[in-house]
Amino acid sequence: MKYIIVTYGCQMNVHESEKLAAICEKMGYELTESRDDADLIVFNTCAIREGAEDRVFGNIGALKKLKKKKPSLIIAVCGCATQKESTASYIYRTFPFVDIVIGTFNLPLFEQYVLSVKNGRQMKLLSEGDIDENIPYKRTSGDNAWVNIMQGCNNFCTYCIVPYVKGREKSRKEENILNEIKSIISEGKYKKITLLGQNVNSYGKDLIPQVSFAKLLSDICALEGDFKLTFMTSHPKDLTDDVIDVIANEDKILKDIHLPAQSGNNRILNLMNRRYTREKYLDIIHKIRQKIPDARITSDFIVGFPTETEEEFLDTKKLVEEVKFAGIFAFMYSPREGTVASKMDGQVPQDVKQRRVNELLALEKEIQKRLK
Ligand code: 5AD
Ligand code: SF4
Asked: pLDDT band at 47, cuts 50/70/90?
């Protein structure tokens, strides 16, 4: 019996798939590289932008032929897209050959769903779940080991679906994180450890007693072993001085800092509910560069947020020009069901978004050339 997992989206999803892989192997399935050979196909989906969802729909459709050839094939779709009731029901209705449709919080029960497929198709959506503590992973990312430190997000940036599909922030207990890292180090296979969370800087605020992200970082660095430590993603409003100091002072911490700015314009930042201004963002960048001269700062930007004018977009270009990031990701704003921004007036036409994203990426390319 063979399994294959197809993963869409971010590193957190890649890591979730490592959890799914461990469950599949525990059930006795072996990994295959080819969908044609598989007895169990799992799609781990992403909902961050519309394009990510459309790609999933297209690829699920293509499985129909495989199921016809091998009726015993089990097809499961899970992840952020299917955590939304509307998308889950759409997939369940449109693709009758899909056996299991489950949301992000149902993953711990995955084995149970697979074992009960013989009793018929299932669509199951839990609306909330505890954070997984000590569970096995089948690590698949070479000499990098992902370590989840928290799940969910409390920020409700107005464009973002994450708080709706991943729930509120929940931190893992520091002791459990440290134990997982100790066992990663003792395996001797991993050079790099990457801590994962939607908003790592607010790690530990929900724990009793509270633990700061800076303390977690220094406690990990105090562990014996030859490894490098990095993390993602930081929210500019929560990147505190103590965290910058730990990054500056600890040799084990890589000097890569991903700090999504999203926009360079204060009116848009406010509409996005980002809770910092362009000036505050630039202050943080200056502080980082003062304390960590070799910092490699990267960022994300969204262009064409509702009502964004040409001038406001120019502020984003100016910010990119001024900061000279080590790299940026630029996205066209994509309305997500249920979010505040999707209901705002002044949605920007697709061709304008496309031009703005092209311009921003062209500028970035030119800056990179100059920096070399
Ligand atoms: N449309 C476009 N980009 C988005 N992002 C998040 N939500 C949306 C959306 N609705 C981008 C942000 C974030 C990155 C992971 O994806 O820039 O930092
Ligand atoms: Fe989404 Fe904002 Fe949370 Fe990031 S901080 S996951 S952009 S709501």
From this structure: very high
